[in-house]
Amino acid sequence: MPEPAQHADVVIVGAGVAGLSAAHRLARAGVPAVVLEAGPCVGGRMSTEKVDGFRLDRIGRLLCTSYPELRRTPGLDALVLRAFSPGVLVYSEGRRHRAGEPAPARRAKGAFHTARALASAPRVPRPRTARSPRPTTPLGSPLDHARLAKALARLAATPAPRLLARPELPAADALFRGGLPARTLDGFVRPLLTALLCDPDLTTSSRCADLALYAYARGRLCVPEGGADALPELLAAGLPPGTVRTGVRVRAVSANSVTTEEHGELRCRATLLATGARAAAELLPGLRVPDFHPVTVVHHAVPEPPLTDPALLLDADRLGPVAHTAVISQVDPTRAPAGRALVSSTVLGPPPPERELRAQLAALYGTSTADWETLAVHHDPEAVPAMPPPHDLRRLVRLLHGLYVCGDHRGTSTVQGALHSGRRAARAILTDLGVPLAPARGSVPAAA
Prior knowledge:
FAD/NAD(P)-binding domain; alpha/beta; seven-stranded mixed β-sheet; 448 residues; Polyamine Oxidase, Chain A, domain 2; FAD-dependent oxidoreductase; single chain; eight-stranded mixed β-sheet; 2 domains
């Protein structure tokens, strides 16, 4: 740790993905930074617990291969993403149904397959008469699927600025003004958005919901190989040695100094707050603290995978507290030891009663959960900042010359939003310091 009153060009408070992203961009521009983290490791909410060979994410946020910031952020070239199978599985009326499979990349960007690919599990044909109704599934008729495919393809092909110019409503209200049948919305769109936004009531801004569906239609849902902490650890490892200092608690900040409990004052030319919203407001009274969506992630070790498909499983019938679940070791085999399987389930609220949780999982997977071992229950009451309308997707990152703030509470409450806010903050710092921002290029390989 620098000695008291030592000078640094930029001090970044918080070693989450937003702060680490900003540090990379400053380093590329030749501006040295020091990142101070109060915790014992980097990553903030993107942390992973290791238990008996299992890798257990504390907050299981879903990523998408189409996130632009995963390609633009320096330091992430070596990140490997493990993709879920195309589309999702939706549990409804006692069965699992495949829905929402994106088209191959060689076809039009974000275009979805035709109604055939969006249809649910095969049905047994039966004779029709003139009075026989057209056969339907819990997710809607083939015509409903065709309408959904057309709507999502049109959304994926729409430039993002046009999406952001649309009238803003709560997502739940906007859905039912789009012309899609209620069965399709309740059977697919609502549970999907609930999983992507961590908002069971869909009070989120419709613009944020449009961006979430836009990303889904143009890519694949995925997770970092090895656990969520792989992303921030990779960012930290790519910074110059000594940049990140853990176990350092900051108790005061200003435009030209940061005061720590352990090491006194550190002088600087600029200070960047890259903590969560509440911690930032404690250091800078007056910053708005948003409401939050609480999230609980429950991890079970199972002898055999109850589902071999590496798919995200949604509950359209809302049988219980679980919003979505997956045999995550089928998606990323590195998350479980050989001969074991890992089921990770997300509850959008407080930890539920064990009996209620297991009963729902038994129904979703169609198997007994009596021999499932509970490895961990991770709860965060402030896991995801809420984004009700009107929501500013580009909240100010420059508070004044020399004092800046970034994080998922400054844009969208996603990993994409956190990385993007770090980029915006770094650009503002470099502009004020009179240093040109170096271009960033990179690609993220996705494992099958």
